[in-house]
């Protein structure tokens, strides 16, 4: 309300007062009002009173003094106009005796009686003005200008100090995000080397899956006990500004371990897949469930993605099937004929979603035509690897081209074109890769090994650097906008990594 008044938005302020029932009785400087009362400048007093709200007792005293002085000055028309106003009508209902005294004073003056302020109040006009001014002063609240912007600035400063917002960056208050390209230190890909935050979950609990929203504002994790948490991407702690996360009874939860997560394009919706084959779609701001599917895949949902149109859900499972399901109808819209001899480990779209790629533990990379839902090619990019290590664990679409980074359990990674042909190859020193991630501009590729290593591969020079982390790794995800990696392991640890 102060902001509206300071910026001259009078009509908006009045509407807000009426609709909310909340009034404002604060002034930056009460001196002009108090001085005007003491000097009897009633036109100025009425002008200031129109911008604030005082309690009835103070208004009664003010209007009573105003009417008496107008009568004494001989301005009967104005006195009668003020007397017929809403304040005096309220006085009539609450204190009829006082109202009748004032009415009688006006009537006597109309008949030519010689009356004064002192004859009505029993004290001189200056003394009565002083008493009224003091009473009004007690009811006023003094507030400096610009409190809204000051409080917003203080809130952002507290978020920076608490590592909720990255320092030295532009911050979009409206969307609650750091806009892409606004972080000067992170616009260039830099390899992560340091674990700057570590969170350990309660005994017996661990993260099974994780996902960043496209704008980087949300980090979702799926737990082995079925709970889904939205975390602060900077601290790794549960976001308690989301009301539903303040109590476990109101949190997002599934019946089985959550092993697949995916946000829609703006982060407002989160899709969840479980080891029991069920899937659900949740609103991230309220924690309410939009859609739930009980058995999309009989052996568990290994991959889940929301299509760009926001109307369909793509899932793949341990049964080797890949399906496109309507969110509203719950019906299967398309089913991609399975070419896998084992479970599906990942799926990915090309940039315009005309092609769908799938990979599996059988080492196959399938390329589907989205419109026809038919397989147009199947390749075995790691056919020379031993069968146990030929499994493809992760697909990473290249942001600047239609190429695809294909990562195998053997520790090899290939850049594959839309025709299925290999363009480039990278090899790490270890096998047992469980998943992979890339830096924002894909200069660095991170292969996460089960036995406590992360291989950082410079895709420009092919140099491999090893990062050691304790525990048996389950997976990792990378921040879409700046250099940050989140890894999680069987021991319940959640680690946040960044450059030195």
Any chance you could write out the topology, listing elements then pairs?
Blueprint: H1 2-6, H2 10-20, E1 26-27, H3 31-39, H4 42-49, H5 56-73, H6 76-83, H7 86-94, H8 96-110, H9 117-121, H10 125-139, E2 141-142, H11 147-161, E3 194-200, E4 207-212, E5 219-223, E6 227-231, E7 252-253, E8 258-263, E9 269-274, E10 279-283, E11 289-293, E12 301-306, E13 312-317, E14 322-326, E15 332-336, E16 344-349, E17 355-360, E18 365-369, E19 374-379, E20 392-397, E21 404-408, E22 412-416, E23 422-427, E24 433-438, E25 444-449, E26 453-458, E27 464-468, E28 473-478, E29 485-489, E30 493-498
Parallel strand pairs: 1-2
Antiparallel strand pairs: 3-30, 4-5, 5-6, 6-7, 8-9, 9-10, 10-11, 12-13, 13-14, 14-15, 16-17, 17-18, 18-19, 20-21, 21-22, 22-23, 24-25, 25-26, 26-27, 28-29, 29-30
Q: How is the biggest beta sheet arranged?
A: 4 strands, antiparallel
CATH class of the largest domain: Mainly Beta
User: How helical, in percent, are the residues?
Assistant: 10-25%
Low-pLDDT residue spans: 181-186
- Helical/strand content category: alpha+beta
Domain count: the total is: 3
Strand order of the biggest β-sheet: 3-30-29-28
Question: What is the gist of this entry?
Answer:
This protein has 500 residues and is α+β, with helices and mostly antiparallel strands.
Search tags:
elongated; single chain; 11 helices; 3 domains; 500 residues; Methylamine Dehydrogenase, Chain H; 24% helix; alpha+beta; 4-stranded antiparallel beta sheet
């Amino acid at each position: 309300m102060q902001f509206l008044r300071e910026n001259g938005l009078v009509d908006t302020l009045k509407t807000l007062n009426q609709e909310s029932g909340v009034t404002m009785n604060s002034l930056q400087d009460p001196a002009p009002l108090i001085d005007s009362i003491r000097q009897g400048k009633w036109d100025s007093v009425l002008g200031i009173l129109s911008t604030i709200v005082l309690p009835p007792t103070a208004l009664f005293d003010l209007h009573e003094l105003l009417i008496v002085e107008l009568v004494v000055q001989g301005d009967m028309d104005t006195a009668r106009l003020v007397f017929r106003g809403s304040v005096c009508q309220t006085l009539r209902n609450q204190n009829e005796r006082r109202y009748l005294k004032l009415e009688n004073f006006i009537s006597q003056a109309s008949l030519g009686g010689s009356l004064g302020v002192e004859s009505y109040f029993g004290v001189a006009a200056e003394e009565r003005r002083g008493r009224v001014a003091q009473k009004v002063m007690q009811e006023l609240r003094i507030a400096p200008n610009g409190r809204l912007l000051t409080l917003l600035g203080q809130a952002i400063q507290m978020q920076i100090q608490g590592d909720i917002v990255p320092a030295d960056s532009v911050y979009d208050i409206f969307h609650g995000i750091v806009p892409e390209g606004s972080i000067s230190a992170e616009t260039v890909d830099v390899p992560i080397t340091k674990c700057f935050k570590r969170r350990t979950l309660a005994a017996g609990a661990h993260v099974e899956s994780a996902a960043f929203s496209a704008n980087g504002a949300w980090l979702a994790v799926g737990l082995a006990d079925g709970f889904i948490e939205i975390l602060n991407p900077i601290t790794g702690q549960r976001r308690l500004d989301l009301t539903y996360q303040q109590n476990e009874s109101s949190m997002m939860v599934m019946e089985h371990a959550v092993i697949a997560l995916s946000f829609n394009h703006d982060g407002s919706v989160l899709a969840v897949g479980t080891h029991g084959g069920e899937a659900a779609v949740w609103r991230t701001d309220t924690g309410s469930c939009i859609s739930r599917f009980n058995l999309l895949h009989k052996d568990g949902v290994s991959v889940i993605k929301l299509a760009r149109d926001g109307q369909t859900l793509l899932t793949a499972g341990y049964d080797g099937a890949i399906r496109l399901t309507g969110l509203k109808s719950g019906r299967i819209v398309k089913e991609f004929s399975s070419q896998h001899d084992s479970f599906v480990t990942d799926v990915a779209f090309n940039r315009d979603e005309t092609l769908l790629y799938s990979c599996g533990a059988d080492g196959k990379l399938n390329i589907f035509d989205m419109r026809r839902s038919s397989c147009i090619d199947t390749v075995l990019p790691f056919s020379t690897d031993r069968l146990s290590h030929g499994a493809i664990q992760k697909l990473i679409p290249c942001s600047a081209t239609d190429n695809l980074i294909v990562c195998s359990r053997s520790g090899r990674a290939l850049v594959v074109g839309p025709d299925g042909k290999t363009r480039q190859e990278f090899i790490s020193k270890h096998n047992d890769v469980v998943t992979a991630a890339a830096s924002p501009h894909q200069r660095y590729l991170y292969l996460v090994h089960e036995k406590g290593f992360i291989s950082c591969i410079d895709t420009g020079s092919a140099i491999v650097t090893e990062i050691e982390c304790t525990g048996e790794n389950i997976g990792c995800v990378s921040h879409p906008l700046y250099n940050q990696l989140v890894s999680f392991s069987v021991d319940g640890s959640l680690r946040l990594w960044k450059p030195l």
